Structures are given as C-alpha cells and as structure tokens.
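Q: Given only this backbone (113 positions), what sequence would you predict?
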C-alpha cells in the first residue's frame, strides 16, 4: 500500500521561501507521475504542478516562475520549492501519486503579508 507523507509547511512572510517534501513508501511510486496540489480555506483543491518519473514538470500559471518541483527517486521523495511567496499561496498542500490516486495528509503553508 502506498503512503505519502508531506512535511515542511509552516509560516512564511510574503516574499519568502519554503520547501515542502513528500516522502513515499512503496517502490512503485518511483515510476509514477507525482503531483502537488493545494486547497485554500473555502476553496476547491487545485493542481499546483506535476513531475514525471524522468523529471519533466508542468506548472499551473499562478506558480510559474516561483515554484519548482523536483524528485529524488532513490529516496522516493518529491519536493516543492516555493519562492516569492504571496499571501494567496496560503493553503494546505498535498502531494499525490497520479497513477494510483494516492494522497498524503497535507501540510499547511501560511504566508503573512
């Protein structure tokens, strides 16, 4: 059974940076496209970006140029580097295995103005 655990959330100031991690159990996660998603209070969950098993990335327009997704398949970990944070980036961030539709519990990011 696949288990995803996010970490690295917390409080940041506008303009600051945070790096989120998503550690996966289950060897098959190394070969799947992974995604980062977020859900702000009172809003629908939205896709932030994805990364394929060979490192190709795609991003939502609202994070392009600010967020970077990477992965270390040997460590079964996916990262979300967030820079130039804005208050509107405040949300619970979730990683998911897009093939298995498996989700982590999320990590809260709060950006103060």
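A: Predicted residues:
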């Amino acid at each position: 059974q696949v288990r995803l655990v996010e970490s690295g959330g917390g409080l940041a100031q506008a303009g600051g940076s945070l790096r989120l991690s998503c550690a996966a159990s289950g060897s098959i996660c190394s070969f799947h496209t992974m995604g980062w998603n977020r859900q702000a209070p009172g809003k629908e969950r939205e896709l932030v970006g994805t990364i394929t098993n060979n490192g190709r990335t795609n991003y939502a327009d609202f994070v392009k140029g600010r967020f970077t997704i990477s992965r270390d398949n040997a460590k079964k970990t996916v990262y979300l580097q967030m820079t130039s944070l804005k208050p509107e980036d405040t949300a619970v961030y979730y990683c998911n295995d897009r093939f298995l539709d498996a989700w982590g519990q999320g990590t809260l990011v709060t950006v103060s103005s």
